[in-house]
């Protein structure tokens, strides 16, 4: 299954939210992750007194929020004591409200077990640029992570990423309620300065692009929206359309199925590049692994890779991780379909395993010749040899940022992306660390070494 896109949405007002108790973490199924969501939170009126105490919490909700692995609320207030009320000329003049609270409000959330607070709503910019900047400064000093707000559009639309029990979660936030004002603080755009993220017009396209990135990169993408019609619990037509678009950005795929088989007579005939009298391993030690993969076209394709029997099951787990996260592969075919020619396979951007060949420029056998290495998307992940990119079409990808948190292009392997993490889990090394980087190359430990 591709990355799940979970929609967590709360209406403008009057919506109720009930939280079930996640229970003791030790009693949950292995590998499970518990998320908790609450709706609108502000500190006006009767709840303002909470800010006067260093021990106050959100009451009974706090237990459920704190028990979850990750909890999110909609913070409907500007965290500031400064600034002027922002114009809200597009709102009903008889129904306009401006909310703000001091930084101690984040302390209440933190003590209540809140991990993330969305400020992308119809009160996030109530006190204009000053209020946004003060909110961001308060967030920097708090353990509660703020989303949906930023000094610029990049920060406003960026998700907060967290890792929970080896599961990466990206939490996006945007306001999809009626626009408050034409002032750019209510719709962060390139060059507009501080603002909040929205799901309207250009903002929707930006949000969809960010969710697509998370669908490729993370195990779970959460989209937390502020939307709907006043006092209405059922979704509007616009909500349904928006939900479909966001779900499509990380659409579910057919269940992952694989098969590991011995090299039968039909496969032997296909593996024309293998010479039993020369190659360092016998075909009896190899296995053909059949897996589905997501192509660059977004469709599911059937792939085949040959590896050593000792690593076959681990390889299945790696391809399952790539499939589940939607990481795209151009091609997964036996090297023999390219005449055993590694250069031809790389030029075709083919992800491959076993290949009875020597290390480039050496008499030593490659790890591929033992069925203990796999190359992933060679065009997007080049082998840099003597300053030259192989294949030649990979030259534009030589200097791509592959560091943690980097926004990568389609098919690029990054240090904290799904491919590198999946191989690391099975103990394989990545060629990015070599003196001459081989970004496509992943290899199993050499069993001949102590």
Automatic annotation (TrEMBL):
Residues 34-260 form the Capsule synthesis protein CapA domain. InterPro entries: Capsule_synth_CapA, CW_Biosynth-Accessory, Metallo-depent_PP-like, Peptidase_M15C, Zn_M74/Hedgehog-like. PROSITE patterns: PROKAR_LIPOPROTEIN (PS51257). Pfam families: Peptidase_M15_4, PGA_cap. SUPFAM superfamilies: Hedgehog/DD-peptidase, Metallo-dependent phosphatases. Belongs to the CapA family. This is Capsule synthesis protein CapA domain-containing protein. It comes from Aeromicrobium halocynthiae.
């Amino acid at each position: 299954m591709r990355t799940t896109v979970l929609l967590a949405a709360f209406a403008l007002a009057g919506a109720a939210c009930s939280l079930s108790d996640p229970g003791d973490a030790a009693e949950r199924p292995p590998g499970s992750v518990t998320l908790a969501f609450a709706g609108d939170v502000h500190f006006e009126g009767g709840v303002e007194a909470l800010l006067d105490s260093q021990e106050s919490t959100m009451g009974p909700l706090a237990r459920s929020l704190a028990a979850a692995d990750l909890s999110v609320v909609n913070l409907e207030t500007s965290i500031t004591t400064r600034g002027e009320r922002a114009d809200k000329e597009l709102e009903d003049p008889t129904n306009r409200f401006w909310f703000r609270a001091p930084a101690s409000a984040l302390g209440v959330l933190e003590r209540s077990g809140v991990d993330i607070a969305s400020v992308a709503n119809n009160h996030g910019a109530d006190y204009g640029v000053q209020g946004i900047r003060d909110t961001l400064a308060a967030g920097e000093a708090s353990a509660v992570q703020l989303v949906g707000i930023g000094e610029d559009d990049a920060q406003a639309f960026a998700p907060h990423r967290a890792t929970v029990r080896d599961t990466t979660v990206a939490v996006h936030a945007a306001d999809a309620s009626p626009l408050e004002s034409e002032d750019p603080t209510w719709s962060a755009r390139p060059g507009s300065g501080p603002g909040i993220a929205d799901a309207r017009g250009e903002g929707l396209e930006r949000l969809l692009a960010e969710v697509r990135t998370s669908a490729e990169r993370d195990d779970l993408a959460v989209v937390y929206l502020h939307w709907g019609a006043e006092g209405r619990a059922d979704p509007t037509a616009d909500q349904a359309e928006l939900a479909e678009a966001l779900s499509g950005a990380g659409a579910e795929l057919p269940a992952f199925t694989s098969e590991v088989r011995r090299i039968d007579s039909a496969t032997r005939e296909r593996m024309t590049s293998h010479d039993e009298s020369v190659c360092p391993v016998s075909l009896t030690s190899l296995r053909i692994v059949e897996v589905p993969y997501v192509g660059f076209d977004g469709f599911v394709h059937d792939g085949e890779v040959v590896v050593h029997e000792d690593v076959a099951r681990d390889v299945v787990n790696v391809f399952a991780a790539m499939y589940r996260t939607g990481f795209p592969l151009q091609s997964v075919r036996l090297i023999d379909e390219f005449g055993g020619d590694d250069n031809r396979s790389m030029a075709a951007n083919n992800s491959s395993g076993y290949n009875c060949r020597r290390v480039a420029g050496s008499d030593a056998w490659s790890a591929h010749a033992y069925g203990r290495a796999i190359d992933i998307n060679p065009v997007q992940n080049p082998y840099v040899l003597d300053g030259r990119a192989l294949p030649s079409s990979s030259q534009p990808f030589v200097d791509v940022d592959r560091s943690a948190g980097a926004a990568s292009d389609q098919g690029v392997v990054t240090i904290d992306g799904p491919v590198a993490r999946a191989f690391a889990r099975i103990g394989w090394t990545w060629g990015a660390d070599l003196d001459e980087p081989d970004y496509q190359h992943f290899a199993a430990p050499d069993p001949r070494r102590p």
